[in-house]
Every structure is written in C-alpha cells, then in structure tokens.
Amino acid sequence: MESLVIAGKNYSSRLLLGTGKYRDFAQTRAAVDASGAQIITVAIRRTNIGQNPGEPNLLDVLPPSQFTLLPNTAGCYTAADAVRTLRLARELLDGHALVKLEVLGDQKTLFPDVVATIEAAKILVKDGFDVMVYTSDDPIIARQLEDIGCVAIMPLASLIGSGMGILNPWNLQIIIDNARVPVIVDAGVGTASDATIAMELGCDGVLMNTAVASARDPVLMASAMRKAVEAGREAWLAGRMPKKVYKASPSSPAEGMFTGTQPPAANS
Amino acid sequence: MQLTINGQQQSYDGPLNVQQLIEKLSLQNKRIAIERNGEIIPRSQFPEQLLNEGDQLEIIVAVGGG
Fold it and tell me: So what's the pLDDT on residue A181?
C-alpha cells in the first residue's frame, strides 16, 4: 500500500481533517472516523478559568495515542505569535514536533503573509520543529519554504473557508512538479470533486475543515471526502488518457457493421 | 498576591506554586500548557515553580480548529 510520508512517518490516509466548527465533540469524532483521517489539526487557545471545570477536552475525544495531532497557528498575524503558539503546543503535546504553520496577512481574506511565514519557518525549523506550512500558490515561495526545511508545502486552493475549490490548478501543478516534499492542498475545498481534482493534479494530500463541518451532514461529507481523495489518488496513479479535442474515438469496433448505412461525412 | 491569568486579574494567598494554582483552578489532570511572563513552564516543574506578585500566566488547551 503506497503511503503518504511526512517527516519520516507513514500515513495510509491522504485526507487531513480540521476539527473546527462542528456541532459538538461527538460530531467531530464521528466525522474524523468517517473521513479516515490520521492527521487532525487543532488550534491552541486559552482555557476557560473558573467556568465549567468538568468540561470535556478535545484531546479526550481525539487522543494523541490514536491520531497525529497537528497544532496550528490559526489567528496568528506575526511570526513571533506563531512561534510562541507552537512552542506552547509542543509543551502541551509532550514534545510533539509536527506542526502546521500559518501566518495570516489580513482578516478579510486570511491570505498568508508569506514574508512573515518564511521568517517563522526559519525559526521553527532551527528549533527542531517539523513544519507543514500553509502558503499561497506561489511556486517561488513554495520552493523557498522547502529550501528552509519545511516537511510539507500546503498551498491554498482558494481562500480559507470559502469553499471556492481549485482556482489556479496551473500554479498548483508547477508547485507539485518542483517539490521534493509532499504538497498538500490546504484551504478552499468545497465539495468532493474539488478534493478529487486536487489529487488528480498530483497533490500528495488534501487538508480541509469547513467543507466537512459546514456540510448539511458533516459525517456523510467526511465519508464522501475520503472516497474523493482516494479516487483522485488512484486516477493520478493510473494516469489519465490524453484529452483529444475534436477527435472522437469509438469504443466499439468500426468493422463488422451489418446495417450497410454509410456514416454521414463530417463538416471539415 | 495578584496574578493575571489568561488576561483576568486574580487574587491568591501566597506562597503558591504552579501545581497548587492548577488545583485551585480545577485543572489538575487536564491537558494544558502554561506560560509565565512569556516563558513556558515545563510540566515537570509545576510543583517547584513558585508564583510571584504580578506574574502573567497563560494557560492553554487544544481546541477545534482547521
């Protein structure tokens, strides 16, 4: 079974799932299970002080013994904030080194600030983190992040949470063709066909959250996404037929026709 | 002793170490990490780290996110 390898660890699932925006932890867990995802993103936030001391914890529902937890830096707008967040995450997860770096540029688009992202990536790699990095679909920035030592490049397909799908497949293709580390589309997937298109381009994986959590039936969509990612991967491995514009080719034999009628001539 | 915990002013009788504070907040046995004045306090040091007047603490957890 061919696997996704990130920072030396093998994963049979190429779907990475976020845990935000679900109705409750039970639905989060059911969606994760239906998706087959092994890598699960989490955010790092202040705990409630003095309220609901018995409140369940996400890590009780998704234990690090069963999943590879990928702490993110969502909400960070500076390199310093992102580094600080991930150092706390590493302490929280007992020295766990695999992280998702994102440094955002503005609240309206949540577009990555690639300059600050590069700055943070350098610090984190030097500090021993295995950095999976959210970035724009700029092939030059992707290459620079790889050169810094990031273990996966995660370009957006379209804006975070937009569900707009793969808006620039050609840029993604360039990034994939150049990369020597896994390329994982992160952000913008809206429905199953988007995930399949990403995988058919040759992406190594797809990371999504809102497409599943904001579906009418999140658990069913998680199942659809699992199949979509698998289908796209298999299609890419199988190698699609060439596209033949204006050149139809019948699947059935042209010889042995018994009706005797000649086909009409095509317009030239 | 005045402490700022997750942005909120709190008052405690000293001396108090980090482990005792966690118990007062009913956060013992929870998966948390703590930063004091911008420095991470390793979990193994909770019982020996004494809190000081004016300390700024951040106590964080993992939550759902994408």
Answer: 97
